[in-house]
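Quick note —
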Amino acid sequence: MEDLPRAAAKLLDAIGDRRIVALQGKMGAGKTTLVAEMMRLLKMDDEASSPTFAIANEYHSSETGQTVYHFDFYRLESSAEAYDIGIEDYWDSGNLCLMEWTENIKDILPDDTLFVEIEEQPDRTRLVSIK
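Predicted structure written out below.
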C-alpha cells in the first residue's frame, strides 16, 4: 500500500492527454483502489468508490474544475447497454474516463483507449502494466 500513491502518480503521468482508460484485472486486483488514489491526487471533492451498481460515478474538483468519470461495466451484458447509458457522450466530453471491466464492451472501445493491466503477484503486490 505504501507504493499506491507513487503508482497512481505514475499512471496519471502516463495517461497524459489521453481521455479514455481501460483498467483491467481480476476481481480484487485493485482497480477501484487505484482509481480512488488517482482521484485523491487529482483533488476531487468526493472519495472515489466502486460504481458497480451505479455503472458510472462522476467526480468533480472545486479546486481545479476538473470532472472525471469512473465506470464499472461488470454488470453489462452487451455493448448495446453501454450505448443505452450514453457512453459516447462521456467519451466525447473531453473529460477523463476511467473504466473497469471493459472486457464486456471491448468491441466498441475507441482506438485511442489506453489499457492498464493490474495483476496480483504471488507476494500479494500488484504489477501495473500500460499497453
